[in-house]
Amino acid sequence: MTMRSRIDSALKEAMRAREAERLSTLRLINAAIKDRDIAARGEGDEGGVTDEVVLGILGRMVKQRHESARAYEEGGRLELAEKELDEIRVIEEFLPRQLTGAESEAAIAAAIAEVGATSIRDMGRVMAVLKGKYTGQMDFGAIGPQVKDRLG
Description:
It contains 7 helices and no strands. The protein is an all-alpha fold. 17% of the residues are buried. The model has no long low-confidence stretch (mean pLDDT 88).
């Protein structure tokens, strides 16, 4: 079952169960995917949005909501922060399990060995391997400095 069909079936279930908050978040996910679909068509890509692209979209949505929740908490708007955290829970249902610190370290070591990286110049190739294998499972913003430390 593709990511898109999983999201569509969850949307239908939320409609039937009259879960307004969940339905709202699922509609936001669908809108983001459709936006990417339209952008891809504009670029001449008729293949559509793949599961990897959907995982990337979902990852960005989670990251945006974490930032918003933090800003709301700092501003004393706890009810809005809680709403953002609820949306994160719904979005994360469709993301694969995040790798632990030890699993991330092992993945970095394996990618470095696979590429044969020896210096910081190879960082792009290592990151490409990691993104190809672990999209949606690791935060590449946090992984980048770890790879850099290993190669530097």
